Amino acid sequence: MNDRPVINARSFTSGCSIARNATLNLVGQLVPMGVGLVTIPVLIKHLGTDRFAVITIVWMLIGYFSLFDMGLGRALTQLIAGKIGKDRYEDVAGIFWTSMSLILACSAAGALLFAMIASPLVHSILKVPLAFQHETESALYVTALSIPFVTLTSALIGVLTAYHRFDIINAIRIPMGTYSYAAPLAIIPFSNNLIPIIAALLIGRIITFGIHLHYCFKIAPDLRKRVVLETSIIKPLFRFGGWMTVSNILGPFMVYFDRFLIGAVISITAVAYYATPYEIITKLWMIPGALMNVLFPAFAANHAENPSHTAELFHRAVKYQLLGIFPLVFVIVAGAHQGIALWLGHTFADNSFRVLQWLAIGVFINCLAQVPFSFLQGVGKPDITSKLHIAELLLYIPALWFLVKAAGINGAALAWTGRVAVDSVLLFYATRRSFTSRSGVSLTTGICAIAAIACLVGIVVLPQWDVSFAIFAVMLIALMTAGWKLLLSVNERSYLVGKLSALKSAK
Fold first, then answer.
1. Which letter does DSSP use for residue 89 in this model?
2. Which residue has the higher pLDDT, 314 or 29?
3. Chain mean position to CA 72
4. From the centroid of its chain, how far is CA 215?
5. Could you report the per-residue pLDDT of 425-479, keeping only the tens digit for each?
6. Is 498 exposed, middle or buried (0-12, 13-18, 19+ CB in 10 A)?
7. How far apart are CA 490 and CA 99, in angstroms?
8. Which of 140, 200, 403, 473 could share a disulfide with 118, CB 3.0–4.6 Å?
9. pLDDT at 158 (0 to 100)
10. Residue 202 · residue 146 · CB < 8 Å
11. Alpha carbon separation from 280 to 33, 322, 388, 404 (Å, rounded)
């Protein structure tokens, strides 16, 4: 068809294309995060710790229940990317409308389930203060209405991802992500009640859905012209999506269950002390997320045609993540108490800094693990990640319960980090078996990653490491110099030096 987009799937893996799209994704997440850093202290001050804790749980629940798309959103991206790679655009409309119809049905069921558990969640499970239990319950009912819009929007983003339109994705993400933080702030002068705050967030999600749908129709006019359902693809969708659903349910469950356990065993206030550093440090996921959103459709479209090049992409992704994220995590772990005290005060810092340190180590490990996770799903092997999650769940829940009882929120952070460490090892092992010619990660890269993790753990557990920032700065420079020499080839170092020189000249 004359008006369909023309895309060269091989261009997905060009260095310039990956760098440009990853940068767009990173900027699209950094701007809303900056707004969040400014607004969160104001929200805590005016809403109080308990009400803010409820909002963090609402943010988490929306993300969790929106995954009741039965894995079809990720399957939609993978299938469309595969069709684009084979230049079979005529099949896209059937995949799109069949997937969207199924996702709508599944997300509506998720919203209904959410509404059904709202009351027992507030009155029986979480230790919500009696004074605003009714307010919290009503806010959760409003939250339930958001789930279909969030889920369908995620699927639409998947369509744009398959077409590599990261410019559109982030042009929408920046203002709407900013709105998610700014809307509660705008309501506070008039009311600190949770219901209008959550209602404002619902309006934002409806608008976001409409904008994404408009642009999907714009870049792929066939979607608007050919509204068709293809029953023949339902089985492939659910075959891929079924395993994705296992990961979608168990993965976030293991990520977020600690908050429920803390709220049930300790207090809702303790949730705020735990969830706030969690929300801070997990913003680092935007870095691997920016890159993995680009590489996922690239893996799907190119692995079968060029496995050796895909392996090289995999290795580069791991070592660039290691070099890019480690210095950030090092600074966060070394300055955890001072940073939280400066941002939220000494009381918050005294309760949360150790949580931030352990979670930072876990997030660093998890950032590396996102490369094999995206690879396995991109090449059509979601069953591997799902089976790993099932095995991990059996060990994680009792370990979490024991550590929360023994060490409170610090124990919860330690359990979370231990789980992602095990998950990372298993994912890299599974990925190595998926490559036929090479492992995808060199021995040098693996040793450097282990050394980096050991260094971070040492800062936390060794009392004598409580030293000046000057010493930490020297250590960081030494470690990054070693990584520069060991991990990057001569050509890579020359390329980066050239780019830095070009930037200086431009200034």
1. G
2. 314
3. 18
4. 23
5. 998 888 877 665 555 567 788 888 888 898 888 888 876 555 556 666 777 777 7
6. exposed
7. 46
8. 140
9. 84
10. yes
11. 9, 19, 27, 21
Dmax (CA) of the chain: 68
Number of neighbouring beta carbons within 10 Å of residue 422: 15
Q: Is the dihedral of CA 22, 25, 29, 31 positive or negative?
A: positive
Query: What is the pLDDT at residue 1?
Result: 41
Of 287, 332, 305, whose CA–CA distance to 456 is shortest? 332
Whether the model pTM is above 0.70: no
The CA-atom distances, in angstroms, between 270 and each of 165, 261, 262, 408 are: 41, 10, 7, 9
Instruction: Give the C-alpha distances (Å, rounded to integers) separating 51 from 193, 429, 498.
Output: 9, 43, 50
**483 pLDDT tier (thresholds 50, 70, 90):** confident
**Cα three-residue angle 226-231-232, rounded to 5 degrees:** 105
What amino acid occupies position 67?
A: L
* Dist. CA 433–CA 440, nearest whole Å: 10
The distance of Cα 435 from the centroid of its chain, to the nearest Å, equals 25
More confident residue, 470 or 180: 180
Alpha-carbon dihedral 449, 451, 456, 457, rounded to 10 degrees: 110
Section 81-97 average pLDDT: 77
| 8-state DSSP, 5 | -
Look up residue 34 and give its two tokens.
């900056």
Q: Is there a contact between 148 and 119 (Cβ–Cβ < 8 Å)?
A: no
Angle between helices 336-344 and 307-334 (to 10 degrees): 70
Res 213: pLDDT: 93
Specify the 3-state DSSP secondary structure of 460. helix
In the prediction, which pLDDT does 6 show?
A: 46
Helix count and strand count (H, E) for the chain:
18, 0
Angle at 443 between CA 442 and CA 445, to 5 degrees: 65
**Single-letter amino acid code for the residue at 43:** L
* Rounded distance between C-alpha atoms, residue 370 and residue 266, angstroms: 32
What are the distances in angstroms from CA 387 to CA 180, 239, 242, 246, 247? 34, 14, 12, 8, 8
Handedness of CA 464, 465, 471, 477 (dihedral sign): positive
Please compute the mean of the pLDDT values over residues 251-271 and round it to a whole number. 77
pLDDT score for 421: 92
Residue 88 has pLDDT above 90, yes or no: no
Q: Could you tell me if 106 and 68 are in contact, meaning their C-beta atoms sit under 8 angstroms apart? A: yes
Residue-level length of the chain: 507
Mean pLDDT of 378-382: 72
